Amino acid sequence: MTKHGCTEKAVKILKENIDDVTLLNLKQNKNPDISDYGTIIVGGSMHFGGIQKEIKKFCDNNRDILLQKRLGLYLCYMREDVAQKQFNESYPGDLRGHAIAAGLFGGECDFQKMNFIEREIMKKIVNSFKDSTSTKLNKEAILEFAQEIQKK
């Protein structure tokens, strides 16, 4: 799921580095049938202190199935000082404990894609507004996550 493009960039890197990937956008497909997949990766980004509601709902509605699959969880974020806390609050403990890969991918703010209120809030969080995009996306973390998922 992506609102301003950061998660989409992370997914693109994952897709290039993981074999046989099917992408599902939970905003477009709110209740996908995941029963035939062996590995499920769930990820999103933080918006105003929480992960997207579609991701929380997906995890809640599919908890039993997810606990039977190879599971990867990731989070895109801007504030490194609270990233682990946000990850823990975004995903239930049993899913975090079951996951074979957990990723904190950093984040990106494209101020041109944000409305005025979002820009003002993000300026305070990012502490800089030197250009139209502030990038902290961690490609190395994404590649490490992909390697964990690829292990059999």
Please describe the structure with a list of short key phrases separated by commas or semicolons:
152 residues; alpha/beta; Rossmann fold; four-stranded mixed beta sheet; two-stranded antiparallel ribbon; 6 strands; globular
Summarize the structure in words.
The protein is an alpha/beta fold and 152 residues long. It has one domain: Rossmann fold (3-Layer(aba) Sandwich). The chain has 7 helices and 6 strands. It has helices at 6-17, 53-61, 63-66, 83-90, 93-98, 116-126, 139-150; strands at 39-47, 50-51, 70-76, 101-104, 108-110, 133-135. The strands form 2 sheets. A 4-stranded mixed beta sheet has the order 2-1-3-4, with helices on both faces. Strands 5-6 form a two-stranded antiparallel sheet. The protein is globular, with a radius of gyration of 15 Å. The model is unreliable at 128-132 (pLDDT under 50).
Short summary of the structure?
The protein has helices at 6-17, 53-61, 63-66, 83-90, 93-98, 116-126, 139-150; strands spanning 39-47, 50-51, 70-76, 101-104, 108-110, 133-135. It has one domain (6-150): Rossmann fold.
Q: Name the CATH class.
A: Alpha Beta
Count of domains: 1
Largest sheet, if any? 4 strands, mixed
Mean pLDDT: 85
Number of H/I helices = 7
Given as residue ranges, the uncertain stretches (5+ residues, pLDDT < 50) are: 128-132
Compile the SSE list and pairings.
Elements: H1 6-17, E1 39-47, E2 50-51, H2 53-61, H3 63-66, E3 70-76, H4 83-90, H5 93-98, E4 101-104, E5 108-110, H6 116-126, E6 133-135, H7 139-150
Helix pairs in contact: 1-7
